[in-house]
């Protein structure tokens, strides 16, 4: 006996991303703002001056990637249960990517899913993490290994929040901006080459272009069946660097910047990119004080760590390689020897 369950409904998860001064927001429901003490100390007053709701609660979790875990998720869930949140209630993620990923994950599981809104406060979360509905948390096996695709109802990107961002965090966000340009948008890359992102108006334009690029990619491939994996450009190498340095030496975006240079060198060896194009990317990263080199002590072990990457299988490793500037290729056909050559060169020159 066979029973078929028909699930061919098309669900419209479309939403708007506003890049501007935060508008006044009113909710006829219960709302919880999830944040951390640092962001709350700097900006909660401003946020509260823009938000009203039937009932409004603040949930604070400790600051840091090490707290993007089950304990913090439980803390948020408990608060929602205690305040009797229901399926019409709303979460607001107010912070960087850590808060965004974790609040989104809670929204995806609380009573099997409630709405949430992203109000990102770091450059990295404004141009990347808040857009596209990837949510999650870490566990002892690794980063972002638990999660769900759960799109926010809307995203409000107010560049004003960036005025308090430390320089290194700003640079880490720039790396993700450069990632969007190199992989998908040559004109944007050329804009970045001549732009001064320390100028707020120029920065707002760059945020817009990065978000437009990511929104297009997510619209094409929401659940990462193919194209969206290209947003992991620089990450395959970067994750190994983060892993080797125990997540202490580099911010994520900083490791991704070095990873992009490694991916470019691989692409140059495969004749996908010219040396001059690779240099242009390096120069752009250096303009924002991002390191572009890293001493690989043991190339063999570096290579083996690629197998921990979510895109890898037991037998093959997927690399995201630029084709010139503005196009990209996802391939598992680089050949171990060619990649090892790139890694050994990093063993010499740093
Ligand atoms: P983060 O959230 O840890 O923020 C970095 C630091 O800046 C924190 O100490 C934070 O409290 C502080 N901060 C936040 N806003 C500030 C402000 N306006 N002024 C001063 N300080 C401020 O890190 P992040 O770089 O924003 O995000 C990294 C996280 O994002 C990682 O967990 C990563 O896995 C995730 N991520 C997710 C996606 C996605 O698509 N979901 C994409 C990229 C990254
Ligand atoms: N940051 C990669 C993605 O959203 O797919």
Task: Describe the structure in your own words.
The chain is of the alpha/beta class and about 350 residues long. It folds into two domains: about 15-165, Rossmann fold; about 165-345, Dehydroquinate synthase-like, alpha domain. It has twelve helices and ten strands. It has helices at about 35-50, 70-80, 95-110, 125-130, 165-185, 185-195, 200-220, 235-245, 250-270, 275-285, 300-305, 335-350, and strands spanning about 15-20, 25-35, 50-60, 90-95, 115-120, 135-140, 140-150, 155, 320, 330. The model has no long low-confidence stretch (mean pLDDT about 95). The structure holds nicotinamide-adenine-dinucleotide and glycine (GLY). The site of glycine has 5 residues, from loops.
Average pLDDT across residues? 96
What is the H/E string? EEHEHEHEHEEEHHHHHHHEEH
What is the number of helices? Answer: 12
Tell me the strand order in the biggest sheet: 1-8-5-4-2-3
Find the structural class using helix and strand composition: alpha/beta
What can be said about the biggest beta sheet?
6 strands, parallel
End-to-end span in angstroms?
65 Å
Overall 3D form: globular
Radius of gyration: 21 Å
Number of structural units classed as domains: 2
Low-confidence residue ranges: none
| CATH architecture annotation name of the largest domain | Up-down Bundle
**Under the CATH scheme, which class of the largest domain?**
Mainly Alpha
Going by CATH, the homologous superfamily of the largest domain would be: Dehydroquinate synthase-like - alpha domain
The distinct bound ligands, ions and cofactors come out as:
nicotinamide-adenine-dinucleotide, glycine
Beta fraction:
15-25%
What's the count of strands?
10
Which bin fits the share of residues in helices? 40-55%
**CATH fold naming of the largest domain:** Dehydroquinate synthase-like, alpha domain
